[in-house]
Write a structure and sequence with these properties.
Shape: globular
Strand content: 15-25%
């Protein structure tokens, strides 16, 4: 068996939120790096890796074969449609997609509302839209962190269904439950501020949000 690879900071942060001995579903698995790594480290025993396209699944199967990981089921399909109640999933990871796509996958899925399910989300864009829609649809953030990968900062959040549907204010949509003392979280907020300041050229309301975020730093 080949020596196991290291995860980049983004996937490593996702892995850190997966619970010990979880039954994992990795949605949009690409090369299946995350489930292969988690199993090889003894953090989980088995997993489902799914993707909407056949090619990433084939690459994922090649990764599992290379590192002699045999306890991954590969499912072809869209979003959480690839998971059933009989799979007994406890933890879900959806990483590397836009926030709006992730929002659609989670908020439209009955599986996502299962009690005790730990859902780990890593949006590439529009994290503020994701947070707004999660709370609007009865989910809440249970943990959140940031990680820098390829010179860009990303947020990673664990969420769970609580059944409380509420509108959250604009500032919370950008800050979520980030640790404002953490350097990576501060960097992520500064990214938001720069983006909002650019958008304020067309709509000054975005500049007002940016000013509120500055006060959090």
């Amino acid at each position: 068996m080949s020596q196991i690879f290291s995860l980049d900071n983004r996937l490593s942060a996702c892995a850190s939120l997966v619970r010990k001995n979880a039954r994992l579903a990795d949605i949009g698995t690409d090369h299946a790096y995350l489930p292969v790594w988690l199993i090889s480290q003894g953090i989980i025993k088995d997993a489902i890796a799914s993707d909407i396209n056949k090619s990433p699944l084939e690459m994922g199967k090649a990764t599992a074969e290379k590192y002699n990981v045999q306890s991954i089921q590969f499912h072809l399909g869209s979003g959480l449609d690839t998971v059933t109640a009989e799979d007994n999933i406890t933890d879900i990871v959806i990483a590397g997609m836009g926030g709006e796509i992730i929002s659609d996958i989670v908020c439209s899925s009955p599986i996502a509302k299962n009690k005790g399910l730990n859902i780990i989300l890593q949006p590439m864009t529009k994290s503020e839209e994701l947070i707004k829609n999660l709370y609007k649809n009865g989910f809440e953030i249970t943990a959140q962190k940031c990680a820098v990968s390829n010179n860009k900062c990303y947020t990673i959040m664990a969420v769970a269904y609580c059944g409380v549907f509420k509108e959250v204010d604009e500032v919370f949509c950008y800050l979520g439950k980030l640790d404002l003392a953490d350097e990576n979280c501060q960097r992520f907020i500064r990214q938001h501020i720069r983006h909002l300041e650019n958008k304020s050229k067309a709509d000054r309301h975005f500049g007002e949000i940016a000013e509120k975020l500055k006060k959090s730093l």
